[in-house]
Amino acid sequence: MNLASIDLNLLLVFDALMTERHATRAGQRIGLSQPAVSAALNRLRAILEDELFVRRGGEMAPTALALTLAEPITDALRRVELALGVAARFDAATARQHFKVRGVDYVGYLIIPPLIASFARTAPGVAVRCLDAQTGSVAELLEEGHIDLAIEVMHDLDYPVRSQFLLRERYVVIASAHHPEIGTCAGAAHMEKFDLDLYCRLPHALHSFVGGTTGNVDAALAAINRSRRVTFSAPHFFSIARAVADSVMIATFPEPLARRIAPLLDLSVYFAPIELAPISLGMIWHRRNDSEPGQAWFRQQVMASVRQLDGLDPTLQ
Question: What is the CATH number of the domain that holds 109?
Answer without folding.
Answer: 3.40.190.10
